[in-house]
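Example A, followed by Example B.
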Amino acid sequence: MPYWRLSGYYFFYFASLGALVPFWGLYLQSRGFDALTIGQLLAILSGTKIIAPMVWGQIVDHSGRRMPMVRLGALLAALTFLAVFIANGFWSMAAAMLLFSFFWNASLPQIEAVTFNHLRQRHTRYALVRLWGSIGFIIVVILLGLELDQRSFNMVPAWVLILFTGVWFSSLTIPDSAPVSGNHPAPPLRILLQRPGVLGFFAACFLMQLSHGIYYSFYSIHLESAGYSSVAIGNLWALGVFAEVLAFLVMHWLLERFGARQVLLWSLGLGVLRWLLIGACVEILPVQILAQILHAATFGTFHAAAIHVVHHAFPGRTQGRGQALYNSLSFGAGGATGSLIGGFLWSEAGALVTFGIAAVSTALGLMVAWRWVDRD
C-alpha cells in the first residue's frame, strides 16, 4: 500500500483546487473581465467536470491501465495551463481554461479507483489517504491568501502552475494496481446502471451536490452582505475544511460500525439542517460556526461513503467509469445546476429562499437514498 505516494497526489491535487476555487475569479477580475464574463469562464470548469471523467474512464476501463492515463492527464494539464499566461481576451482565456480543466478534471476518478485497488480489503481506510487533499487545500488557501494581501492577483497562475507540476511529479511515483477480481466477470456497465439502487444512489448524490453548488457560489456573498469581514469569511471556510479532515480521520470506524448507507442518510439529514442554519441565521456567528462544522457531514462523510458505494457497485474494469459517473453527475452536473439555480434566485428571492431550495434538494436526496440505496 503506497500510502504516502497516494497521499502526495491528493495533497497537490486539492492544493491546486485551493488556489483555483477561492482566487481564480478574483484573478480574472484583476485582468479586467466583468462579472458576466467571469461567470461564463468559471462555468467551463464545471462543464469539463461533466465530460472529461467519462471520456477518460471509457479509455481506461478498456485498456485496464490507469496510471499511464493519470500521468498523461496531469502532464497535459500542466502544459496546457501555460496558455493562460498568453491569453489576453475572452476567447483565448476560454480556450486555455477548457484545455487545462479537461485534463485536470479527467484523472481524479481514476486515482480514486487506483487507491481502492491498493487498499484491497482495507477500503474503509480510504479517508485516511484522502484527508491529505483537505490538508493541502487548507495550507494553500492560508498561504496564498496571506501572499495576496501583499502582492497582486497576477501571481495566482504561477501558484497554480507549480501545484499542477506537483500533481504530475506525484503521479510518477504511484504504481498501477489491477482491479480486484471476483470469481465472475463484472457485468456490463449498462446492466449495472439499470439497478434501482445504483440509480437512486446517483440521484441522491446529484441532489446533495446541487445544494453544495448554491453554497459554493453564494456563501461568501451571503456572509459579506451580513457584515462579515474578509478575514472572518476566510476563517469560516477554513473551519469547514478542517472539520472535513477530522471526519476523514474517523471515517473508517464509521463505515465499519454503521455501513455506507447509514452514513449517507445521516449526512443528508444534517445537510438539511446546515442549509437552514446558513439561510436563516447568518447574523449569529456561533450558528455559522456550527453550520461550517457540519461540512464534516455534508461533504466529508458523504463523499467518503459515496466513494465506498461506487467501489462496490462497479467491480472490475467498470471501476473507472463508475467513479467518473459519480464525479460527473454529482460534482459536475449537480454543482453546475445548483450554481445556475442560485444565480436565478439570489437577487430576486433572497438568501433565505435560495438556501431553502438547497435544504429541499437535500431532503429529496434523503428520501431517495432511504427508499432506493441498497443496504450494505
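Example B, a separate protein, is given below in the same form.
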Amino acid sequence: MDSNANYDIAIIGAGPGGYVAAIRASQLGGKVVVIEKGELGGTCVNRGCISTKTLLASAQLLHSVKKAGEFGINSGEVSVNFSVIAKRKERIVRQLVSGIGQLFKSYGVEVIKGKGKLTERIKDNLVELEVEKDDGSIEKVMTKKLIIATGSVPAQIPGISIDKRDVLTSDQALELEEVPSSLLIVGGGVIGVEFASIFNSLGSKVTIVELLSRIIPTEDGEISEQLKKFLVKSGIEVNTGVKVKEIISHNGKKKVVIETPRGREEKVAQKVLIATGRKPYTEGLGLEKTGIGLEKGRILVNERMETNLPGIFAIGDVVGGVLLAHVASAEGIVASENAMGNQSKIDYRVIPNCIYSLPEVASVGLSEEKAKEMGYEVAIGRFPFLANARATIMGERVGMVKIVADRKTDEILGVHIVGPDATELISEASVAIKAKVTTKDLERMIHGHPTLSEAIFEAAHDVHGEAIDLKKK
C-alpha cells in the first residue's frame, strides 16, 4: 500500500452493494474501510427487501391459514396483530444488521459512521475523502481506490406533496403502526404490487393506479396480464393508463384525482403510497467538484464498474440500470475484483427479476416482446401450475411457466414465471440461460417428482408441443 494511503479501498455505503464489495476486497487482501451514515445493510435490509419480505411472510402465512380448512385443519377464528408483525420485522432487521457487523469484524473491515464526500484533491493516484461524523467532526481518509455505493431514494411525482403521514413513500409505509382501512398506491411496478399484496392480505381495501398501460411493465406482457387477473380476483382494484393530477384532504382522508381514458375520476383512501420507483442518491458526495461523469443523476461506469476517473468505481442503484439488491451485490464483487487488480465484468443477461407479490413473479432473460424486437424468430412454451402435481397438493394452482426460445437454434432466451415460489424456481432458469441450454437439453434434465420445478421442464417440452401433462394439441 502507498505510504500516503490509509486504505487500499474505501467504500461509501454499506448496502447490499457496499458491504459485499467490502468483504470481497478483504478476501483479496485489501485493507478496507466502509463509510456509512446510517445503519449497515442500507435500504435493502432496513427499509426495502428484507422489511417488505418479512411483512409478506406474515401475509403469506395468513393466506395459508385461511385455507387450512381445505387441508383438514381447523384453525378457528383468524385475526391479525399488526404490532407483533411490525416488531418481528424490526427484530429480523436488527439480526441482519448485526450479522453484517460481525462479518466486517471477522474480515477486518473498518467502519466509519458519517457522511463521506470527495474533495477536490484527487492526485498522485490517491483519492481523498472527508467524512462528517455524527458529532460534527471531520475525518480525512486517503485511499488508493474508491467504490461509491450510495444507493437510491424514493422518486417523487412533480407537484405531489408527500407529508409522510397520509401521503407516504415506501420508507414511511414500512413504519406504519396499524393497517390502514384503505390504501391507494400510485405506481404498479415492483414496489407497488408488493405493498398491494401485503396490505390487501392484512385487511386494507387496496387500489393501484398506474400511468402505463399495464402493471409490472418491465415484465413479459402475458405475465403482467396474469398477475393483474390474480390481484383483481384477490380484491385489489387495478387501474392502468391513468395519471394522478392532485391529492387533496377530504373528510379526514385523502382524495386522489386521476385522469383516465373515461375522463377525470376521484378515489378516496385513508393513506396514499407513492410507489413510482427510486432514483440514484448522489447528494452530498461532492461529485460536481471532481469531474465524474453523470447522466440524468446517475454515475456513468464501464463494464468494470469504473468511472471516467481511474481508481473510482460506482455500483448498485447509484449507477442506474437495474435497481435490484442482488445486482448491486454482483456489481460490488466485480468492482472490488477490478480495484484489486483482477479482470472482472458482470453478465447482465442472467439477472433474475423477482417480485414478491401474491402470487410471486420472476423472470430472467428476454421477454417475448423484447426477443421479437431484437429480431428473433421465437417459439413459446407454456405450462400451467394447474396441471402440476405439487402445486395441486399445496393448493396453489394459479399461474404458469413461460419459456421464450429461439426457433432456429432452440436456445432458451427467457423464462417467465407467475405462481407459487416463482422467486426460488427462477434460479434454475438463470443457470440454463447462462449455459446457453436449449429446450431439448432442458427436457432431458430429470426433475424430482412431485415438485414445482417440473413445470419448467414441462414448459420446455411445450415449446415443441410435447408437454406430457397437457392434453394433445
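On Example B: Residues 7-153+279-348 form a domain with the FAD/NAD(P)-binding domain fold (CATH 3.50.50.60).
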